[in-house]
Amino acid sequence: MKRKNTAVVLNPLSDARKAENSASSNYSPQSKKQRVKVLSKAELKAKEIWHRKSGAGFHLFVEYYGGQPEGVVNTKTDESVSSTTECHAIDSFCEIKAGRGMSRAALRRQKRRNITSQQVGPAGGTIVHKDQSGEQVFQETSSSSNHISLKFQEALKDKPNCVHIRRFLSSMSAALPLTFRIRHQSFATENMKSLSKDITDQLHTKFSHLVRAVNYDTTGNTIYQATSASQLTKYSLGSISLELKSLILHATSSGMMARQELGSMLPVIALVGVGKLQYGSKVLDMCASPGSKTLQALEVVASCCSTSDLKSSSKQGRIVANDIHPMRLKALQDAIERSGISKSLTKRIKYTNHDASKFPTPKSGTKFDSIIADVPCSGDGTIRKDSHILPNWVPSIGNSLHELQLSILKRSIQLLKVGGVVAYSTCSLNPVEDEAVVASALTWGNQLENDSVEIIDWPENSLPGFKRRCGVTNWRIAHYDWNSETDEDYTSMESDGLPRLSWFDCFDVAKNACMPHSAKSMWPPKAEVSKFMNLDKCTRLLPQDNDTGGFFVVLIRKNKEITQ
C-alpha cells in the first residue's frame, strides 16, 4: 500500500497544481466575467508553501469527505457514536522539529539529558522519527480513540455540517499501530519452521501485552497488531521495547516475518480466497514497488502440498513484478533480496519495466491467472503513517489520477485469462479513484456483450469477523479552484480566509466551469445502470473499524474474451 509509482512525483500537490495550471491555460473562458490566471513558477511555489502552512489541506479534506454521501467514510452508526462521545483535541499532525527555537545551551542540556529520543505529549505519547531533511520530528499519538487532531478540530468548527464524520477523523488522528505477519510456512526448511515457532511463542508469552494475533485471522497466528493500550508504532517500537524490536528485525531478516499493513494484505488474501492465486499460478503485479504484495503472492504460488508438486517444474508458480520507474524497480529488487527468502524462490519473480496501462501481452500468448493492480493513487488512506499527505491535500490529486487508474484496470482485464480475476486496489478512500474507476471499467468491458466482466463477492471464508464496508453507488465531485479570478464574488477562499471547495453535479457543469482533469467517468452511473454493476461488492476498509489505514479493494472476474 503506497503513494505510488506511475505518474506520481515527489510533491503530489505541486504536480496537481502544475497540471491544473497548464490545463487552465488551455480552456477558453465561457463568459466575459470569468478569467483564468496562469500562475508563474514562483507564484505556484508560494501557493504550495501557503497551503502547507495554513492548514488548508485539513479544511479541504474535512469538507470533501464531510460532503460525501453516507457509506464513503461513515455510516449512521458512526454518527450516533460521534454525537454521544466527547472528542478531545490533540495535535497529531502538527510537527515540531526537535530543538527548534532553543538556544545552543538549551540544546546541549537537552542532549545531555537524552530526552530527544522520546517526549511525552498531552495525548499520552510521542513518536520520534526523521523527516526528509533528516531532522527529528515529534508526532503526537492518541491514547484514546476519542481524540481528534487540533487542525481537524479547527476545520470542524468552521464546517459544523461535517461533524458526522468525527469518528472517522478521530481514527485518522491517531498514529497507525504496528502490524506484521508471519510468512507462509509450507516452503520453509525445518530450521526456519523451528525459528518461526520460537518467534510466535515469544510473541504470545513475552510480548502479549504489546502485540496480539488479530481475532479475524483463521489461517493461524499469522497477522499481529499492536494492542490499543501499548501505543506501539513503527516509530515508537525502539523506545517502548528494544527486545521486541530486536526480535522483529531478526525475524524479518531471516525471511520469517513481513512488516505489512492489513490493507496491503487484502488483495492477495482475497485472490487466494476465491482460488485464483494458488500454487502454480501465473501472476502479474502491475505496480509492484515496494514489493510487499509481490512477496506475499510468492509465498502462495511457491507453496506446495506435496514433494511431487515441489519437483514438478511445470507447476511452479511465476510472478511478473512490474514498475514503470527504473529506480523503484531497482529498490523493489533490493527489498526482495533483503527479505531473507531463498533465491530458489525469488528466482520465480521476473522484473519488468513497462507503463502499466500499456503492459505488453506475453510473447508466449499465455495470459495471467490473476493480476494485482494496486494502482497509483492520492494515498489519503495512509495519513495515519504519513504526516506529509494532509498538509498537501487537494482533491485535484485524485481527480488527475482517475484516467490513469482506469487505463491500468482496463489493461489488467485484457491481460487476464478467461476466468481470471484482477484485484484492483488503492490506499485512498476517494470514490473518484475507487468506485468511479470500477464502474467505468465495467461499462467498457460489457459494452459489446453483457457479463463479460463482473464484480465477484469478497470470499467470506477469508478473515471472517474482519469488518469491511460495502462499496458505494453515489458520490460527489469537487474541485479546489485556487487560481481563478472573476469579477463576481466567486473565489476559493471564504470571507475569513479559509479554503472552500466547488462542487459539480455533472460533467457538463464541470466542463463549463473549466474544471481541470474532468472526465465523464468520474461521476456516478445512473441508478438504473449501477444496480446491475454490484458496486456494493467492493470492499472499503475504514480506519475506525479495525484500527487500520484506509483502503479499497475489489475483485473483478473476466468471463469472456474482450475484443476491443
Characterise the protein shown here.
The protein is an alpha+beta fold. Helix content is 35%, strand content 16%. The chain has 20 helices and 22 strands. Strands 11, 12, 13, 14, 15, 16, 17, 21 and 22 form a nine-stranded mixed beta sheet that branches. A four-stranded antiparallel beta sheet has the order 8-9-7-10. Strands 3-5-4 form a three-stranded antiparallel beta sheet, with no helix packed on it. Helix 16 links the parallel strand 14 (368-374) and strand 15. The chain starts with 11 loop residues before the first helix and ends in a 6-residue tail after the last strand. The model is unreliable at 3-13, 27-35, 82-103, 112-145, 306-313 and 484-491 (pLDDT under 50).
What would the principal axes of the Cα set say about the shape? globular
As a percent range, the share of strand residues is 15-25%
Main structural class: alpha+beta
Helix content: 25-40%
Number of helices: 20
Largest sheet: 9 strands, mixed
Number of extended strands: 22
> Uncertain spans, ≥5 residues at pLDDT below 50?
3-13, 27-35, 82-103, 112-145, 306-313, 484-491
What average pLDDT do the residues reach? 81
The radius of gyration is 24 Å
Q: Note the gap between the termini.
A: 31 Å
Summarize it:
The protein is of the alpha+beta class and 564 residues long. It is built from 20 helices and 22 strands. The radius of gyration is 24 Å and the shape is globular.
Topology, element by element:
Layout: H1 12-25, E1 34-36, H2 41-54, H3 56-66, H4 76-84, E2 88-90, E3 96-97, H5 104-113, E4 126-130, E5 136-140, E6 147-149, H6 150-158, H7 166-173, E7 179-182, H8 190-205, E8 211-213, E9 223-226, H9 237-240, H10 242-253, E10 257-258, H11 262-273, E11 282-285, H12 292-301, H13 307-311, E12 318-322, H14 326-338, H15 343-346, E13 349-352, E14 368-374, H16 395-415, E15 416-426, H17 435-445, E16 453-456, E17 469-470, E18 477-479, E19 484-486, E20 502-504, H18 507-512, H19 527-530, E21 539-541, H20 543-546, E22 551-558
Parallel strand pairs: 2-6, 11-12, 11-14, 12-13, 14-15
Antiparallel strand pairs: 1-19, 3-5, 4-5, 7-9, 7-10, 8-9, 15-22, 16-22, 17-21, 18-20, 21-22
Helix pairs in contact: 3-6, 11-12, 16-17
